[in-house]
Amino acid sequence: MRTVDISPYDVYVMLPRLRATWPARDERKQQIVVIAGLQAVELCLRLAADTLDDSRAESCPEERLRRITQCVVDSCALIASDLGCTEPQQRRTPLSAKGVAILRRLPAEATGAITLALRTVRWPYLTPDVRAKVEAVHEMCQRPWRELEDPIFRTVHQFTECWLRIALHQTDRAAAEADAGSWSKAAVHVDQAARAVELVTSNNDMLELMVPSDFHPLRVRLRDGTAADSRAAHEMLRRPRALLGTLQEALACRQSSLAALLDQPRADPAAYRYLRATASLAKRCQTFLLHHYQLVLDVLGTQTRGTLGKEVERLATHAVRPLLPALNQARHDLALVAVLRYGAWSGEMLLAAERATGLYPYPPEALPGDCPESLVGERVDAYFRAIRDRNAAAWTALFDPVNGMLLDIAGTRPFVGRSKLKVFIESTFETFLRIEPDYTVDSISRGRASVNWRMSATSYLGTNVTFPGTEVFTFAADGAILRAEAEWDSYTVAKQVWQHESEHWERTS
Description:
By secondary structure, the protein is α+β, with helices and mostly antiparallel strands. It has 20 helices and 6 strands. It has a 6-stranded mixed β-sheet. The longest helix is centred in the middle third of the chain and has 32 residues. The radius of gyration is 31 Å and the shape is elongated.
């Protein structure tokens, strides 16, 4: 009778047997890195032996061996980094007798690369018990293999479980350091976890070398035994948010936020270092999901229906969903305030370059058309009413469809044509959740109007702002806006929106 806690995937990759060889969390810190890391290396060698014994030309044996070799080299580099020393040191080989025998069978180039990689690690003394646990992975397979792609499929997933176990171990250590406020030390462990996930992703890509017609019989035989059931993978995907939560709590205690830290990293370099490491780990986890989705597509395609089809759709959704929503929002907040903070120089660099090369792809300053004053007044009113009503379509339609131009601030790169104008007004509505314009027409004539306005608005951060400005309009004879040129101080508005101390509140040119 199967234990409820063991999934079909666990059974397939023989995970209970593999887990039984790993030390408990409270044992010596280095043991899990040494044992699981060496097991990953031995698994690669086991797969190399199976590749050498595979007579199928279509299985790309040379490329498989190249990738296996690189995986061993990368594994050793990461083990050396995890153990805290990358200086070469001559010691008795850490490989099992079976691993050594396989190494001797490999092409000379692969043997040399792996031997050198093993020597770059300062291996601790390996007790007979540790060596037995490492060598045990050679028996964690089903021989003879029942399907042609079983060796690579099972081995790659066992390798994944080994390195995810190390990655989880590193995030545990990071969490402990973060709880103590040791952000720099925590960041080192988060970085190691990120490298482990990156290694897993790279190794999993080896599955793209499977021959589809040889893999499908195995896939059907397995049915429910898929990597989607890997609890280590699911737990790894949760870790970045937990690590970020610790930082958020610490920032909140001192009335700060993620966005404020992003804006002023020099105020707390250690916390920023930890934030960057956590963001990198989340990115590697998301890349893992994306590559897994792409591998599934290699086998199933995009039109799969039924249960498998839903699984493919779920993978796609997870692959593009931010793993750190709070950080995603903080980045968005900072990006929006930057548009206001530096608005006076919007597009200035590109505009200067265009002018320097004689390329100025904008309409010349428009001459006013014979537009009646009454129509001019109606269009000015419609312009500000559309802003108040947040009606992007109505606002954009007031401009000439081809040559309609807006200079949001004099001297900045203009928005020309309705498609570009639509981008501008929609981003404005994104920045300000509410805008109440109050305007006075300073002067009006046929085809022209000069307006003084004052905006009362609520920003995307919930802060209330007010700011004055002026705007000069030029109209075509039919009332379409040919040119609108505004003048207002976006920098002052940004200070009202972003009510945090920042080194960036010093004006720059």
